[in-house]
Design goal:
four-stranded antiparallel sheet; seven-stranded mixed sheet; about 0% helix; mainly beta; 11 strands; about 120 residues; globular
Length: about 120
């Protein structure tokens, strides 16, 4: 059974940090590009960070310099380190993989940043 699952969300004050982790079935994370998306209340889901198989990364302008996406081969996870969090970072964060032409999503993890 194919699955993705996120963890690490929570409530944090502005300026704080959180580290999100994505785990998946089989070797899905180590054999595909991986994305982190977020969806704020009342807004569309947006791509926040992208990690390619060769380690290249891309970030939305709003998080550049504050967020880091990385692959932890020992734990077989893809993590999103979020520093200097702002209230506008609040939302549900999702891990995403496109595998065999199908989109796979985790259930999401809530991140709330208080001002």
């Amino acid at each position: 059974q194919v699955y993705l699952a996120e963890s690490g969300g929570g409530l944090v004050q502005a300026g704080g940090s959180l580290r999100l982790s994505c785990v998946a079935s089989g070797s899905m994370l180590s054999t595909n590009h991986v994305n982190w998306y977020r969806q704020a209340p009342g807004k569309e889901r947006e791509l926040v960070a992208h990690l390619t198989l060769d380690g290249s990364t891309w970030y939305i302008d709003a998080v550049k310099g504050r967020f880091t996406i990385s692959r932890d081969n020992a734990k077989d996870t893809v993590d999103l380190q979020m520093n200097s969090l702002k209230p506008e970072d609040t939302g549900v964060y999702y891990c995403h993989v496109n595998w065999n032409w199908a989109d796979y999503w985790g259930q999401g993890t809530q991140v709330t940043v208080s001002s």
